[in-house]
Each structure stands twice: as structure tokens, then as C-alpha cells.
Amino acid sequence: MTLTLKSVSKTYPDGTVALQPTELHVEPGEIVSLLGPSGCGKTTLLRIIAGLETPNAGSEVRFGDDDVTNMPVEHRKVGMVFQSYALFPNMSVKGNIAYGLKMQKLGRDAIEERVTEVIRLCQLEPYVDRRITALSGGQRQRVALARAFAPRPRILLLDEPLSALDAALRVTLREELAGLLRRFNITALFVTHDQDEAMAIADKVAVMSHGKVVQTGTPEELYRNP
Ligand code: ADP
Ligand code: ADP
């Protein structure tokens, strides 16, 4: 699914200009890292794509040929993973992953099949019946990824999904994550302020500064022209 942003801007009610009119184009199946310092507008951009925040008039967000600028969040089929997991702590791993699928009104067999698939792919078999509170940080993050993959989203938005983890685990999980995204052929936007992480995981890096995407290129292109 292609993702296209045209002239997307956002001013919060208190007058803060979070995004200046900005463009972004992501090809189907591409992994794009959004890289930039704290406060440059990365989270706002993701929230607009997800439908959690309304952009200023004149902004346009497209998924493929669909103009989704005014489409409610529940119709967008976007998956989201955040730094702070947002899992249900007292529910089991399986319960957390199945939750979103039940909301989609999938049948019992279809839910079972999808849950089993993502549990296997995210290597969570030993923990299916454990409560989230009994898992380590890395295991929790795997559950968050499994939960996001299960509904087969058209686009996956990841906001610093690894930043709560220690350095070694971050490297392991980012390799796994890149593998999963490619395997599912999911179009993904990955927010980070860590340049090495952005370069390692992405097909392309979009560099943001002061509310705008100011440069886009492959990691190789950006290394040559930093
Ligand atoms: P990050 O830099 O990781 O995006 P922040 O600490 O800037 O995290 O923001 C955390 C949350 O607080 C976000 O949901 C953001 O939308 C919100 N937020 C950030 N700045 C403001 C602000 N000035 N007024 C209200 N909410 C804000
Ligand atoms: P980043 O994710 O790159 O840290 P954000 O999108 O969170 O950037 O924030 C961009 C700018 O918008 C910052 O100046 C932040 O303080 C401000 N901001 C974020 N959320 C809100 C909000 N709900 N209300 C007002 N200002 C906000």
C-alpha cells in the first residue's frame, strides 16, 4: 500500500506549529525511518497518518488511491506500536493479541489461526498463557509487535518501539522486526531519533527538522551526502 502525504501541516489549538506543509511518499512494502530530534514533529506526523490527530485544512493523506484525510481511525487499517507497549498488563499474551481481532469481528477459527501465526513468527510460543506482568521488556515488545501484525494492517506505524530496551536487545529486535516487516510485505514508518537504528532498519530514511521532512534517501545516499 502506497502512503502519500501532500502538504500536511498541523497547528495545535495552543498555537504550537508542529508540522509545516510537508510531503512524504512511501512505496508499498517499503520501510521508511523518520529520523529527527525531539520536538521536530515525528509523533504528530504518525498520529495524523493513524487518524488520531486532525491535520490543518489543505492537508492530504492517501493510502494507495484512497484519500483517507478525513477517514476515522477505525477504518484506516493501520497498525501501531509505541515505546510504552500499551498492552493490557493482567491479560495473557494470547488475550492481548486476540483482543484487536475480536474488535474486528473475525470468527473464532480465523482468530485462532492468526494468533497462532503471529505467536510463531514472533517466537512467543513459550509464553502464550503468561500474563504481561510476568514478561521481560523484550518479550513485552514482541507481544506488542505480534498484536500489531495480527490484524494484517495496510500500514504499520512504529513510534520508537525499541527505545525502552537495552542496547543489545534493541539490535536483536530490530533485525527481527525488519525480517517480519519484509515477510508480511508491510509498508512501515519507523520513528527514531537514533541514526544507527534508522539506517539499519530502513529502505529509506526521511530526515525531519522543525516540522518538515527536509531530506529523503536510502541509507547509502545519506551516508554519502550527510
Ligand atoms: P516524544 O518526544 O517522544 O514525542 P514528548 O514528551 O514530546 O514525546 O510527548 C509525549 C506526549 O505529550 C505526546 O503524546 C505529545 O503529543 C504530547 N505533548 C508533547 N508536547 C505537548 C504540549 N506542548 N502540549 C500538550 N501535549 C504535548
Ligand atoms: P517529536 O515526536 O519529533 O518529538 P512531536 O510531534 O511530539 O515531536 O511534537 C512536535 C511539536 O508539537 C513540539 O513542539 C511539541 O511540544 C508540540 N506538541 C505535541 N503535541 C502537542 C499537543 N497536543 N499540544 C500542543 N503542542 C503539542
TrEMBL record:
Q: Report how it sits in the membrane.
A: Peripheral membrane protein
Taxonomic lineage from the root: Bacteria, Pseudomonadati, Pseudomonadota, Alphaproteobacteria, Hyphomicrobiales
> Where does the protein end up?
Cell inner membrane
Can you name the source organism?
Hoeflea olei
Q: What is its main location?
A: membrane
The keyword Flavoprotein appears for this protein: no
- Which Gene Ontology terms of cellular component type are present? ATP-binding cassette (ABC) transporter complex, substrate-binding subunit-containing
Q: Does the keyword Transport apply?
A: yes
Molecular function terms from GO: ABC-type transporter activity; ATP binding; ATP hydrolysis activity
Q: Which UniProt keywords apply?
A: ATP-binding, Cell membrane, Membrane, Nucleotide-binding, Translocase, Transport
Q: Which family does it belong to?
A: Belongs to the ABC transporter superfamily.
In this protein, which residues make up the domain named ABC transporter? Answer: 3-226
Q: Which domain of life is it from?
A: Bacteria
Protein name per Swiss-Prot or TrEMBL: Fe3+/spermidine/putrescine ABC transporter ATP-binding protein
Of the intact sequence, the residues represented are: 1 to 226 of 344
